[in-house]
Amino acid sequence: MAPILEVKGLKKEFKGFALKNISFTLERGYIMGFIGPNGAGKSTTIKLIMNLLKKDGGEIKVFGLDNIKHEKEIKNRIGFVFDENYFYEELTVAEMKRVIAPLYKNWDDGAFNRYLKEFSLPPDKKIKELSKGMKMKFSLAVALSHNAELLIMDEPTSGLDPIIRSELLDILTSVIQDENKGVFFSTHITSDLDKIADYITFINDGRIIFSCPKDDIFEKYALVRGPKEILNTSIRQHFIGIKENRFGFEGLVKDKHQLNKMFKDGIVIDKPSLDDIMLYFTRRVQNV
């Protein structure tokens, strides 16, 4: 079976920025977290997948189909959840549903009503009266009610309180129990991905730094702390980035299994967070 999402050699140039040969693959049954600093190319990549921008090169396939040649079929089978509300604010939840439902050939009213109940969404309330968290739940209800096989989410938990974020993550975990579905989740809140992601794709300055299983990342990378005196030119070359101050240093290494060869003692080794990894890749060296 073809991957649910496949991006190969994707290119897009703007003045002052470019996506440079972006490639990654998401299989069915998994959640992929898409991370990177602001301006790294996350939203541009999503717009290209959605055919909202014209690519300059490369290939995008969804369900094994070209995203341009088969755009209508693909968009019938995917759901979108963005950080902004794109619904008519003056309509109620029920009225908005009546606008959206005819757009999808697989729309299921029964499923939609179940999700309204499950998500505690009042059908007679206007969209503008919903909290941001409730709007996110409405977006999810719409996506799930036309049996979307792929959910594409752009910063869906941004600005939400921890309780609502946790509820949304639980919903996504439940969705992915259907191994025929997939979730592509772009976010800067990496702690959410620590909880639910199977794969992480990290983009920086228009380039993919890595795209691999989340567990592999934490198996390879390590945070190292110690006195500055043990750093020399040879040892520094093993670090992706180092922060130094008058008390010592902290740095990220890509291969923690090399640490015993590099240091005899005097260091502390910790598991990095995804935030730590992003920080050290983007800043490299920092003196405090």
Automatic annotation (TrEMBL):
Organism: Caldicoprobacter faecalis
Gene3D superfamilies xrefs: P-loop containing nucleotide triphosphate hydrolases
Short name of any one Pfam family annotated for the protein: ABC_tran
Domain ABC transporter: 4-230
Keywords noted in UniProt: ATP-binding, Nucleotide-binding, Transport
One Gene Ontology molecular-function label: ATP hydrolysis activity
CDD domains (UniProt xref): ABC_DR_subfamily_A
This protein's name: ABC-2 type transport system ATP-binding protein
InterPro entries hit by this protein: AAA+_ATPase, ABC_transporter-like_ATP-bd, ABC_transporter-like_CS, ABC_Transporter_VariousFunc, P-loop_NTPase
